[in-house]
């Protein structure tokens, strides 16, 4: 296929390039855990834990988006765990975001600190300036979830290389369509494909991607030995989601920017963050490394009670955790492990018409007594 085509076009037509007359156009779900294997056990497929044709097709599709080899896992956290287990050993030091997805830190503290791995944390906005002396692995997340802080990835990658550290970037919020960490010098990207990549809130999946085969081999070996392989059916649903990824991301990003602009003019709304706003503290860095700014808007209302009422009475918000689905959702993140004020809301925009979502947001806030400034 022509190299001048976009990754999405190449993904959509990848299967068609190899079809023979009479082959199914849709990707088949190969549910078998066992494969015909007489005599010498060397074969394209041996056992379901070693690999699966459906899963491998989806890995190739993700690889087109990443411009790298991708390995699929049954969740984003399984992907993070695989990276840690594959590349950390007792005595190593890891630097992780202090304000990104908290379960990554919880995993390190619960299972890796007891193994003798030294864990350091750093705010996302300061990671590019962090002292990486003695650090084996850096895990950054930008934009961070839920606070939407941004890290200068190119600068961080240069510093990591100078220090001899590996750099992994959780790119879940942005997706490869809006940010390409590997192009900026990262060694790995990690994603919870549960979110926008699948896009319909109906599967768990995740992946690790890298352009260095030597770095990927331990990850693949750990998956095979640890058994953390994605099911063929979930891989198929992820495949279906990838076909509409560009359309969904474009609408969700447009919704987020419109909502952020609307919120910026409301009295009582504080702490508004969206990297796509020209007034956002992270916008200068974000616009250098992002082509779109993601579906999440974060902001604070005066109290936890008011925030809960906003979510409950908004006609187009599903009160739920997670993001990247077709429906808009929101929650008070204080109910989890995030260090945020009680009135802090993470609003994840879906693919509703922009005017509908923006109008409903303004009307709901107005009904709660908040007015345009």
TrEMBL record:
Enzyme class: lyase
Gene Ontology cellular-component terms listed: cytoplasm
GO molecular function: cystathionine gamma-lyase activity; pyridoxal phosphate binding
Gene3D superfamilies: Aspartate Aminotransferase, domain 1, Type I PLP-dependent aspartate aminotransferase-like (Major domain)
Chain positions found as N6-(pyridoxal phosphate)lysine: 195
Pfam families: Cys_Met_Meta_PP
Keyword field: Lyase, Pyridoxal phosphate
Cofactor: pyridoxal 5'-phosphate
Enzyme Commission designation: 4.4.1.1
A GO BP annotation: transsulfuration
Family membership noted in the UniProt record: Belongs to the trans-sulfuration enzymes family.
Classification via NCBIfam families: PRK07582.1
Protein name: Cystathionine gamma-lyase
High-level lineage: Bacteria, Pseudomonadati, Pseudomonadota, Alphaproteobacteria, Hyphomonadales
